[in-house]
């Protein structure tokens, strides 16, 4: 009878140990999934702002101006041989600098 109680306790400790390891592995996996999701979201935001800046660069025809997109707004100004484009979207402001295209005559 004494041996049966020890066996039950050993099985219970083993089950508790395995549950702890499973919980730890699940936690690591979920943290990795969340980190991957955040990285994908940041990459998407960066790509969208870069695309808006490039479209603004193509449409820029004055010394300064602004454009509005569904994802945010852009402003640009021409200084010397550079075009400075500022993209404001989702609470972030990113600045891009481009070399001014030469006008073909």
From TrEMBL:
InterPro entries in UniProt: ComGG_streptococcus-type
Domain of life: Bacteria
UniProtKB keywords: Membrane, Transmembrane, Transmembrane helix
Transmembrane segments: 12-30
Protein name stated in the entry: Competence protein ComG
Lineage: Bacteria, Bacillati, Bacillota, Bacilli, Lactobacillales
């Amino acid at each position: 009878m004494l041996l049966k109680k020890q066996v039950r306790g050993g099985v219970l400790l083993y089950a508790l140990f395995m549950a702890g390891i499973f919980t730890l592995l699940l936690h690591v996996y979920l943290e990795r999934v969340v980190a991957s999701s955040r990285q994908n979201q940041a990459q998407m935001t960066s790509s969208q702002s870069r695309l808006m800046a490039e479209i603004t660069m193509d449409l820029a025809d004055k010394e300064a101006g602004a454009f509005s997109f569904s994802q945010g707004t852009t402003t640009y100004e021409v200084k010397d041989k550079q075009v400075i484009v500022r993209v404001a979207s989702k609470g972030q402001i990113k600045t891009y600098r481009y070399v001014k295209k030469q006008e073909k005559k």
